[in-house]
Amino acid sequence: MFGLAPLSTVVWLPIFAGIVVLLTGSDRNAAMARWVALIGAIAGFVVALPLWTEFDRTVPGMQFEEFRPWIETFNINYHFGIDGISLLLILLNCFTTVLVVIAGWTVIRERVSQYMAAFLILSGMMNGVFSSLDAALFYVFFEATLIPMFIIIGVWGGPNRVYAALKFFLYTFLGSLLTLVALIYLYNASGGSFSLLDYYAMPIPLAAQILVFLAFFAAFAVKVPMWPVHTWLPDAHVEAPTGGSVVLAAIMLKLGAYGFIRLSLPIVPDASQYLAPLVIALSLIAVVYIGLVALVQADMKKLIAYSSISHMGFVTLGIFIFNPHGLQGAVVQMVSHGFVSGALFLCVGVLYDRMHSRMIADYGGVVNRMPVFATFFMLFAMANAGLPGTSGFVGEFLVIMGTMSVNFWYTLAAATTLIFGAAYTLWMYKRVVFGEVTNDKVSALSDVNGREILILGLLALTVLAIGIYPKPLTDVLGVSITGLLEHVAVSKL
Fold first, then answer.
1. CB 180, CB 214: distance < 8 Å
2. Nearest by Cα to 349 from 336, 358, 341, 359
3. Which is more confidently placed, 85 or 445?
4. Which of 388, 227, 235 is nearest to 310 (CA)?
5. How far apart (Å, rounded) are the C-alpha atoms in residues 354 and 107?
6. SS3 for 67?
7. Cα separation of 221 and 230, whole Å?
8. Residue 450 contacts by C-beta under 8 Å, 6 or more apart in sequence?
9. 8: Cβ–Cβ under 8 A, 6 or more apart, which residues?
10. Is the model's pLDDT at 326 over the cut of 60?
């Protein structure tokens, strides 16, 4: 890949591009900042594509590994490597960054260079999380992602943006402090290594495993977010600008689920199985209870935010039932949710840019003025409800299949998401899109422009492609998931 290390390029190119965007200066150079950001985002996606084409789907373990000493005093190394799970999330992240830059092209008029740079730098940091095989490096990237998102919400957010940004930061930062304690324990227990691969092979007593698992859980459950530590997410989504909501839902929530897969399951497998009933219970509460909460929301963004919590409950359920269908479904659901939730927040952004309202009651009859938009919105609403033929169905179906082999009652509770998801999504769509135009502001709406059609069209193609032919995703995941489950099945005691 141009003679450069592939994963280092994927991580540092967006960060470098973000710094260049910052150097464009004030808003007098806003046009230059936009174009530099777009070039940087597209370049970041292009350099990630060889990871897909050159990835060996038959080889277990990590690929594209890079290893260099970093802080030798503490044996901290610059160690990158990915498996099929990491690969899909990196591609999702890079693709989403391109869309977010295009989405903010004309909407953001103040501090344009800082806005675009924040997303590019955030993209590189999240790629760092998905690539890191050194625990210290993982933690640095995991925590560093908070800074750009904190700035995005706090600077370009709504009227209560400062409150939402602080709540987001405090919840996620405080949850991660226990993870740092756990990593220090593992460092000492391993004889002075921060290598995640060393931790995978290290025997740990069950009592210690449980404590380490709970420390990891404090960080990853908040990031997902799981019930009852989910309350920061609706506030963050409501106040964040559209691009912030897209990245928050599409990528940042996945950091928590990825942490469970990359750290919790392989490092403390016995504790993961011992405490799995707790995680499953919390996941099912998220699926059922949060689905009911979404039904009573009057704000479109808040409804989609609660929908995200419910769908991420499906992800954690799939992870902790410990079978191939469940885990494969969880990862496919992560990817699908990234596209679908991102598309729904972009749809709300299209309406908000025209009406400056997110309240469902302020709309009605939008299809009469915006038929093309209504078509896109319908597709994404159906995908959110899990309609067969869309990406939203594939992951949920696999998780339900996996759950059925474990416990019928888990399956029955999980399947309610198909009912509640259809109920709150179609209720919102009906009230916003159908009916007669009764609002003068709605009657003045204009349909989506070329830039918006490009963004929504790309997402629509992706949602349909995964729904109709998910085999490329499941092929990439196959060996990685099999290897992980085999590792978890072998006791480390």
1. no
2. 358
3. 85
4. 227
5. 10
6. strand
7. 9
8. none
9. 66, 80
10. yes
- Cβ contact 49:9 at 8 Å: no
Asked whether the beta carbons of 336 and 463 are under 8 A apart, the reply is: yes
pLDDT tens track for 45-75: 999 999 999 998 888 889 898 999 988 888 8
H-type alpha helices, 297-407: 300-319, 324-355, 371-384, 391-404
Q: How far apart are the first and last CA of the chain?
A: 42
Quote the CA–CA distance of 338 and 96 in Å, as a whole number: 8
Question: How do residues 191-242 score in pLDDT, each as one tens digit?
Answer: 888 889 889 888 889 999 999 999 999 889 988 888 888 888 888 888 888 8
CA of 179: how far to CAs of 115, 175, 189, 279, in Å? 30, 8, 15, 17
Query: Are 366 and 445 contacting, i.e. CB atoms less than 8 angstroms apart?
Result: yes
Which residues on adjacent β-strands are paired with residue 79?
67
Q: Using CA atoms, how far apart are residues 363 and 373, in angstroms rounded to an integer?
A: 14
> What pLDDT is recorded for position 2?
41
Residues, the chain, total?
493
Flag whether pLDDT at 171 surpasses 50. yes
